């Protein structure tokens, strides 16, 4: 094993630890509806470990697929975070979520 491999593995592990810590901190602050902050941080670590094991065990695995698996944990957390913050009201199929109440009055 070369020094570059060990160094890149250490950097990747540090990035995963930082991402999990940020997810845990944010999930604690926001109060996500589904799951606990610890489970979301663990999900980020698990998806990153699955991506790393895919790279190690399947050397011919396509890089875009590995990156999708690695990004799955943080992306699903962000979707749940957004739903926890903005998903309480009933859906209105006639308006975009970014439109304000006053935008309807200006059209008429």
List keywords for this structure.
4 helices, mainly alpha, 108 residues
Describe what you observe in this structure.
This protein has 108 residues and is mainly α. It has one domain. It is 73% helix and 0% strand. It contains four helices and no strands. Helix 1 runs antiparallel to helix 2, helix 1 runs parallel beside helix 3 and helix 2 runs antiparallel to helix 3. The longest helix is centred in the first third of the chain and has 28 residues. The chain is elongated, with a radius of gyration of 19 Å. The model has no long low-confidence stretch (mean pLDDT 85).
Could you give the topology of this structure?
Elements: H1 3-30, H2 37-57, H3 63-86, H4 102-107
Helix pairs in contact: 1-2, 1-3, 2-3
How many separate helices?
A: 4
Number of domains: 1
Report the helical percentage.
over 70%
What gyration radius follows from the Cα positions, in whole Å? 19 Å
Distance between the termini: 70 Å
**Order of helix and strand elements from N to C terminus:** HHHH
The unreliable regions are: none
Secondary structural class = mainly alpha
* Percent strand: under 5%
Main beta sheet strand tally, sense and closure: none
**Whole-number mean pLDDT:** 85
Molecular shape: elongated
| Total DSSP E strands | 0
Oligomerization: single chain
Quick overview of this protein structure:
With 108 residues, the protein is mainly alpha-helical. The chain has helices at residues 3-30, 37-57, 63-86, 102-107.
